[in-house]
Every structure is written in C-alpha cells, then in structure tokens.
Amino acid sequence: MDIAVTLVIQGLVFFISAWVVMKFLWPNIINAIETRQKKIADGLAAANRSQKDLDEAQAKAKEILREARDKAAQLVEQAGKRSNEIVDEARGTASVEAQRLIAHAHEEVALETTRAREGLRQEVGRLAVAGASQLLRSTHARTRSCSTGSAPRSRVAERATIARPYAKAAFEYAQAAGAFAAWSSGLAAAAAVVADSRVATCTKDPRWTPADLAGLVGDVAGAALDQGMRNFVGVLAENRRLLLLPEILVQYEALRAGVENTIDVHVVSAVQLDAAQAAKLAAALTQRFRRQVRMQNSVDPTLLGGAVVRAGDMVIDGSLKSRLDRLATELTS
Fold first, then answer.
1. Residue 297, helix vs strand vs coil
2. C-alpha torsion sign, points 259, 311, 196, 200
3. 5-15: per-residue pLDDT in tens?
4. How far apart are CA 93 and CA 84, in angstroms?
5. Of 99-113, 199-213, 304-318, minimum mean pLDDT range
6. 21-36: b or e for each residue (b if 16 or more CB lie within 10 Å)?
7. What is the mean pLDDT of the chain?
8. 3-state DSSP call for residue 136?
9. Which residues span the domain enclosing 92?
C-alpha cells in the first residue's frame, strides 16, 4: 500500500515537472536553439557570399593581368616596328643630311671672322667697365699690373720704353684739349678691352686687319672713346702696339699726376672707410706727400684692422695683420 502511494506521488511529481518544463522552459530553449541556428545559417550564407566575391575578384584580377600582358606585348611590338621605321628613315636620309651639313659647315667657315668679332664685342663689352676700373686701380701700384705681373724685368722695361712715346703723345693731346679726365677714362676702357685674352689672340691673328682691330676696340669701348681717341687706337693698331695700352695708361697717368701735382693712392682697409675717415686720411696723405691725393679705397677683411697705403712704389703697411706677423717673427726668432 505504501509503495503504491509512493509511486503515484512520484508519477504526479514527474508529470507536473514535465508539464512545467514543457510549458515554461522548453519554448525558451527552442527559441534559443532556433536563434542560434539562424545565426549559424546567416554566417554560412555570408561566408558563401564572401567566397563568391573572392572568386569573382580573383577572376577579374586574372583578366586584368591577362589584358595588361597583351597590351604590353602590343606596345613592345609597336615600339619594335617604330624603331625599325626610324632606322630605315635615318638610312634613307643620311646622304641628304650629310650633304646639308657639309654645305652648312662651308657657310660657317666663310662667316667665321664676322661671328668671332660679334661674339667678342658682346662678351668683352660686358666686362669693359669692370676691366677699366681694375686697370685704373692697377696704375696705383705698377707691380700689380696684369700686363707686367709675370714678365721678366727686362721685358717690362722694353715694353715701357716702347710705350713711352705713345703715352707722351696722348698726354700732350689731352693737355692741349684740356681733357685729362676724358683721356684717362678712354685709355682705361681701351686697355680693358685689349687686356682680355680673346682680344689679345685676335691681335696675333693675320686674318684681323689693323682696321678690324681698331673697330673692335672702338665698338666695345663705345662712348668712352671720342674721335681723337679712336684715331689714337687706329695708330696703335696700324703699328701692332694695341697690347701696349695698359703700359701707355700707366705712363699717361704718371705724366698727368706730375702736371696736376697729384698722386694716386690706393688704400686697402679691413673695413670700408666712411666719408669722415676717408677725408681725414686724404688730408693726412696730402700733407705727407705735399701733393693733391686722388684716393681709392678697397676692403680686405684679412687685414683684421688698420690699413695698407700704396702710392706708386711706396707701401705703408699699418695693418693689424702686419703687426701680428712681426710680433710672431720676433717671438720665434
């Protein structure tokens, strides 16, 4: 009797438990399983789509690569054909081109002298002003002149002797005309032209006549030469003395300074002198030399301080660099 009751009770409990599970828990479990299955299905579908896209992309890439290879092959083939055509064209026109070049070369040879003259006028003209200033400064210290810097002393003396009568003639003409300054500028400009190595080469070329050389110097110097100066250059060219113009300029300036009671002084300072300093130094030099001073100033930072004064063959070295050099010599002796 007890066992039967127990079994009945257990059966009821099991039935109730089963009913509760089926009523309340099982639907949630079923929903969770279905949701999970749906997600898995969606994931598989997405993977299938991705695989399909990947396959399509690979197929498209292969197609593009194939097209690129075909295009490259076509370009190579076209380039080969074009190069062959160019070679054939070059071979076909080589004879005609060679004849044209030969004819052109003959024309160039025929016009060589004219082109050389024009080229020199253009290139030397650009440097004429700067060269004239340089030559004027070189007259302050003859040992620095570009025409005598490397020549033997006997050669320098010979050139100076030959240049003397020409310098005297130019001086007398300028004195009579009251044109000392104009002749200084004109001679400096002409000397700057002939100091150029290319013009010097032309003076030794027999294809250049004296008239050609005088015209070249006159054209390049331009307005710096009046008619009297051009005639003077013509005489020098006729006598093959154009290269003496730097020496003529030096001697002319010396004759002019003697008459005007002036002296050319070149002052090299460590820094640029201002107007007051330049005036004070010029007054001191005028008192020292007892002549009117024509002073030019240039800058050399290596002097450290002070200045170097050059007047003709005289050099007054008051630079700090010189003092330090002397001190170093005394300390090491």
1. strand
2. positive
3. 787 788 788 87
4. 14
5. 99-113
6. eeeeeeeeeeeeeeee
7. 77
8. helix
9. 1-109
